[in-house]
Specification:
316 residues, mainly beta
Length: 316
């Protein structure tokens, strides 16, 4: 256990990922200090991976990694949570200046067979250009063989459902759902702690050396749920956007002070619009923070009208 007093919510240094489809919107809209002259597609905000670690940037725990918090002081920071070797969620911001590849993430069964990791995820549309779309599930019933023939003929886009989206829309993506982010979307992504993605089609793009990106067609065909036809956007039930074994995600419209979570339970928040204060820190759109399970001052206080936040917890 670390020797410190819990007086603040925890914030972490964002980790920026260059992507062929990325842009500069995270800087323009959320004030992220991006490296110059590169296309940034992802900002990894909360992550505990062997190859990538969130690092605390404030208070007495500054410099500690998320994995150190999880393994060395779990009860005080996270309270009662299901046991796992690493913090079980990964949280990102996505800037899709161009559309992402058509892809799928494996179920637990397929991941075990392929030595990968299962991945279920959630998207919240924080920003969307007029006409922006998400590619989600299949447009109509189709067999694996028919899907493969469409891939071979270059017509697979016709097999996938397109949904026009606007800010505030949200989608749950179980493992096995074929999907892609369309151009002009700015998303919050909350996902299972996994980095296994099978690209099935990349719109015939090539890199700066004229080479197409690697595809994983066999793995993708094994992973796609061909019964997943015309899934819909989420319909909130009160504050709750989605309740799943991996995570519960709520959207709060803060009109006055509200307790982050019962004492003994942690919660992670992402400010969407407006501004708020927790303990001794202020938060603006695009900022994530973790309220420890045993933080005394647990009140979230809006500092402007129209303050909206996402709240992420892990069900017991």
């Amino acid at each position: 256990m670390f020797k410190f007093n819990l007086t603040s919510a925890l914030t972490f240094e964002p980790i920026f990922m260059e992507r062929i489809w990325g842009g500069r919107r995270l800087e323009l809209e959320f004030g992220k200090k991006l490296p110059p002259d590169v296309k940034i597609g992802e900002s990894w905000e909360i992550v505990d991976r062997p190859e990538v670690q969130s690092v605390v940037r404030n208070g007495p725990l500054r410099g500690k990694t998320l994995h150190e918090l999880w393994t060395q002081d779990r009860q005080r920071i996270f309270g009662d949570v299901p046991d796992s070797r690493r913090f079980p969620l990964l949280m990102k911001l996505l800037d899709a200046e161009e559309k992402l590849s058509l892809q799928v993430h494996p179920s637990e069964k397929v991941a075990d067979e392929r030595a990968g990791e299962p991945k279920t995820e959630f998207w919240y549309v924080a920003g969307a250009d007029p006409g922006a779309e998400l590619f989600l599930g299949l447009r109509e019933p189709i067999t694996r063989a028919q899907f493969k023939r469409a891939l071979d003929k270059g017509t697979v886009e016709d097999c996938v459902q397109k949904i026009r989206v606007k800010p505030g829309d949200a989608m749950f993506l179980p493992a096995g759902r074929v999907h892609a982010v369309g151009a002009g979307n700015l998303l919050v992504e909350i996902q299972q702690n996994s980095d296994t993605t099978y690209r099935v089609f990349d719109w015939n793009r090539v890199d700066d050396k004229g080479k197409p990106r690697e595809l994983h067609i066999e793995q993708a065909l094994q992973s796609i749920d061909f019964n997943d036809v015309q899934p819909e956007l989420l319909r909130p039930e009160g504050d709750v956007l989605v309740r799943h074994a991996l995570f519960e995600i709520q959207k709060w419209n803060l009109h006055g002070p509200r307790e982050a979570a019962p004492h003994g339970r942690f919660a992670i928040f992402c400010c969407l619009t407006g501004s708020l204060r927790c303990a001794d820190a202020d938060f603006a759109p695009g900022e994530f923070f973790l309220v420890p399970a045993h933080l005394e001052d647990r009140q979230l206080k809006p500092q402007s009208e129209g303050t909206n936040i996402l709240r992420v917890t892990i069900p017991l």
